[in-house]
Amino acid sequence: MPTFATPLNNVLRHWLCASSILAIISIPGFGAEPNDTDPIATQHPNVLVFLSDDQGWGDFGFQGNTNFHTPNLDRLADSGVVCQRFYVCPVCAPTRAEFLTGRYHPRSSTMGVTQGDERMDLDETTLADRFKLAGYATGAFGKWHNGSQFPYHPNGRGFQEFYGFCSGHWGDYFSPPLDHNGKKVQGDGFVTDDFTNHAMEFIRLHAKERFFCYVAFNTPHSPMQVPDEFMKRVVERPLAMQHQGRASEKEDPAMTRAAIAMVENIDSNVGRILNLLDQLHLRDQTIIVYFNDNGPNSFRWNGGMKGRKGTVDEGGVRSPLIVSWPSHLPAQQRLEQLTGAIDIAPTLCELAGIPITLDPDHPLDGISIAQHLTDPTEPLVHRKLFSQWSGRIAMRQDQFLLDYDGAIFNLIDDPTQQRDLIATQNELANSMTTDVSKWREEVLRSARTNRPFLIGHPERNASILPAQDGKCQGPSVKRSDTAPNCSYFTNLRTPEDKLTWNILPMQSGTYSVWIEYTATQAATGKRIAVKIGEDEIVKSIDDRFESPSRGQSNDRVPRKSESFMKDFQSLELGTMQLSQETMDCQLRLLDPIVEPGMVEIQSVEFRKNE
Fold first, then answer.
1. Beta strand ranges found along 92-150 (DSSP E)
2. CATH class assigned to 37-380
């Protein structure tokens, strides 16, 4: 086992010592060692988790929305239990972290969606870690969004197989560049179809084993792109169900129709996997879970609930949770138990008979609802759940919601948050306000900040610093779009234009440094430099390389905040000696470009020399 400098000992505690973190003591009441008297624990079923991106609570036929034709998801919901009071986070990456860890997202420092804030701390134990240690084959397909550089990469978080992209969103959904176990590959066709193909291949390969398969669709997140066959179905379809209540005039029918088409494509792909399980006679041996990562990304019908993506109100954080396991769970059931993304990990572990161990330094926030799934008539458990985004905290306790402004609502009687009950529920509101303050101190403020980007892991020779993780400053340079995900730096023209990444090499030694760039004719002959500490390497840009942006031709609705994509060329700048200490990596031009023209940078890559 390699040795690391002191700062790295803390950073890598999880990756190096996962088994010791897991093997502490069992939580009383669930997750105990399987035994012959426990009919659930002895099954060791397969587990298949679907997670969609920016799909709302109301974007399903089984939720009563006649705009959406989702026969496969309706069939899946009908075959099991639907948790109707299930809560996720207001945005993508925090929900994924809560699902994977069973802990509130600030505990893992997953506080944002880009520039490194989407990463889960490395001392977190993921659901994939637990299943892998239990002998399961583990695979993730689609959008990761919890860190790019290994060991933040899914291959370092318990997933033996990964095919997809690590960013928060992607700029083109038709045959884009993707990641297969850390290597760059070209996608094949529409991304959700492609991800499904690879998930199906994984299931076929491990059909005679136990598997944990995580299918993270990146739709209906914008850009709004979908194959013609799905768009044609909805172009003339009447929108009988429309956004209700506040901001009802803001619904864009073109956006709604594109979202419908994208969800119906998801439904088709879910159906393909369900049919495969039937063909392989695995349906009764497989727990299937489906949920969304946050509220809808546009104003459309959502049961009249207040808020959408990015808010802590009902419409921003409520999602149906489908759990289907025909041989063990009842069909056609609705569960009103208050539950959240933090509960999925302990619940799946109990259903699969995998022990959950107690780490005093990493307490689980989630609880297992396995018994409620097997018997939805079980008495409801008294519960408190917290939602947070940008410092705004909402708390749900049983049927009540305390919103971030201090208003209190009975969600059973008033799911649309119309009637503030502060006059009659003042004592409860004060108690909940105290709980919010405690949660803020204990959980929200526990998040770590200023975590450097890791390069040079012993298991991965190459480490990429994409533009999405960097910062830029200067009179000319800017991002290709305001949303950092999938962006690149453009209009690099003067020595005052600087790109910066804060890095921590995990091994001392010699690294070759590469960039992915475009350059106009006016940029040829100009020198570009990368400086780390006192060491600097300089290289002349001798080759002009320009490529058109792409993706816009596939948009069904003009995009507002996602960068287009383009091809970039690789250039080796030279080698550097790096030590195991936190430093800034800075890239800049040494020579100004006077004539019209520029350099664009997609990434800086470090390759550890043997």
1. 137-143
2. alpha beta
State residue 530 phi and psi, 5-degree precision. -120, 125
Q: Using CB atoms within 10 Å of the CB of residue 602, give its burial: 0 to 12 exposed, 13 to 18 middle, 19+ buried.
A: buried
Per the CB < 8 A criterion, the answer to whether 162 and 154 are in contact is: yes
- pLDDT tens, residue by residue, 103-143: 999 999 999 999 999 999 999 999 999 999 999 999 999 99
Cα distance between residue 490 and residue 467, in whole Å: 10
The encoded tokens of residue 600 equal 């664009």
Cβ neighbours around 273 below 10 Å, total: 20
Residue 103: which of 79, 86, 120 has the closest Cα? Answer: 120
H-helix or E-strand containing 96?
Answer: helix 92-101
- The number of angstroms, rounded, from the C-alpha of 128 to the middle of its chain's C-alpha atoms is 14
Which has the closest alpha carbon to 49: 162, 205, 213?
Answer: 213
Query: Within 10 Å of residue 295's Cβ, how many Cβ atoms?
Result: 30
Q: What digits encode the pLDDT tens for the residues 209-230?
A: 999 999 999 999 999 999 999 9
Closest CA to 523 of 557, 493, 488, 554: 493
Tell me the CATH architecture of domain 453-608. Answer: Sandwich (2.60)
State how far Cα 577 lies from the chain centre: 34
Per DSSP, 565 falls in state B
Model pLDDT, residue 189: 98
- Yes or no: say if 115 and 86 are a contact pair by the CB < 8 Å rule: no
Look up the pTM and report it: 0.94
Give the DSSP per-residue string, 530-558: EEETTEEEEEE--S-B----BSGGG-SS-
DSSP 8-state code for residue 66: T
DSSP codes joined into one string, 138-170: EEEEEE--S-SSTTSSGGGTT-SEEEEE-SS--
| Residue whose token pair is 């598997």 | 211
Which tokens is 144 given? Answer: 């990761």
Closest by CA to 221, choosing from 289, 156, 165, is 165
CA 144, chain centre distance (Å) = 5
**Can you give the residue ranges of every domain in the chain?**
37-380, 453-608
